[in-house]
Specification:
Elements: H1 2-5, H2 11-25, E1 30-32, H3 47-58, E2 63-65, H4 68-71, H5 76-95, H6 105-109, H7 113-128, E3 132-136, H8 139-145, E4 154-158, H9 161-168, E5 173-177, H10 184-197, E6 206-211, E7 220-225
Parallel strand pairs: 1-2, 3-4, 3-6, 4-5
Antiparallel strand pairs: 6-7
Length: 231
C-alpha cells in the first residue's frame, strides 16, 4: 500500500513509475484502494476521486478496483456503477484521440517474438482501420498488444477458465469462451459467427486475425473481411 509505505506527496509519482514498469514488461497492472473512499458513506464520489480513477486509466492501468467501498460501505452497488461510468467516459474519450501506435520504447525495440507480433498487429489494425483484433494465440502476445494504443477492441478466445480470467484483466481485451477449434479456418468461422450474433461485428467489417495452436505462440497473422471465405 503506497500510502502507508511512502510520504503522501510521493504516491502519484510512484504510481506512475510502477505503471510504466508494468507496461514495459507487459505485466497486467491493477490500481486499487480508496479510489472512491467517500462512497463508504455517500452515494456519489467527489470530483477528486473521479479524477483519481481517470488518472489511473490515462496512466495505462489494465484494471481499477474497489475494496472497502464494496466490502463494508453503505453504497456498494452505487460504487461499482460510479467506477464503471468513470471508466467508460475516460475510455470513450481515449478512443477518439489519434492513436499513438506504440507507447513503450521497450516494446518498440524488443526482438522477442511476442513483441514483434504485437507491433505487426498494431500496425495492421491502425493502417487498415480495422474494426477489431480477433485472436486465439499465446497470452503473452496478447499482453504485448494490450500495451499498445490501438483503439479497437481485442477479442481473445480461449477454452481454459484460468486463461480467460487472466486475459480479461488486460487493457482493451474482451475474453470469450470457445471450444478448442481444430484449425485457423474453424476458429475464424466460429469466432465471426459468435461476434456477429452478439452484434459486435457485421459482415464485411475489416478485422486482424491472429492464431496459434499447440502451445507454439502466434503462427498466423492476417487481415480479412468478416464473412469472407476462410482460407
Amino acid at each position: 500500500d503506497l500510502a502507508i509505505e511512502l510520504d503522501f506527496a510521493r504516491v502519484p509519482v510512484e504510481q506512475r513509475r510502477i505503471q510504466a514498469a508494468c507496461e514495459r514488461a507487459a505485466i497486467p497492472c491493477i490500481v486499487a484502494t480508496q479510489m472512491l473512499q467517500s462512497m463508504m458513506e455517500a452515494p456519489l464520489p467527489t470530483r477528486a476521486e473521479a479524477s483519481d480513477v481517470a488518472s489511473a486509466i490515462f496512466g495505462g492501468a489494465d484494471a481499477v478496483m474497489l475494496s472497502g467501498e464494496t466490502a463494508a460501505g453503505k453504497y456498494p452497488l452505487d460504487s461499482v456503477s460510479a467506477m464503471r461510468r468513470i471508466a467508460e467516459e475516460t475510455e470513450s474519450w481515449l478512443c477518439k484521440q489519434p492513436a499513438r501506435a506504440l507507447r513503450s520504447r521497450e516494446l518498440v525495440e524488443s526482438d522477442e517474438p511476442a513483441a514483434v507480433l504485437a507491433r505487426s498487429m498494431a500496425q495492421m489494425a491502425t493502417e487498415s482501420h480495422a474494426r477489431a483484433i480477433i485472436a486465439w494465440t499465446d497470452p503473452r502476445s496478447l499482453r504485448f498488444i494490450s500495451q499498445t494504443d490501438v483503439n479497437v477492441p481485442i477479442y481473445a478466445f480461449g477454452a481454459s477458465d484460468a486463461e480467460l480470467r487472466t486475459l480479461a484483466l488486460l487493457r482493451g481485451v474482451r475474453a470469450i469462451r470457445m471450444a478448442h477449434p481444430s484449425d485457423s479456418r474453424d476458429f475464424v468461422r466460429v469466432a465471426e459467427r459468435m461476434l456477429r450474433d452478439a452484434r459486435l461485428l457485421t459482415t464485411r467489417d475489416r478485422v486482424v486475425v491472429a492464431t496459434g495452436f499447440a502451445g507454439q505462440g502466434t503462427e498466423r497473422l492476417w487481415l480479412r473481411q468478416v464473412g469472407a471465405r476462410a482460407v
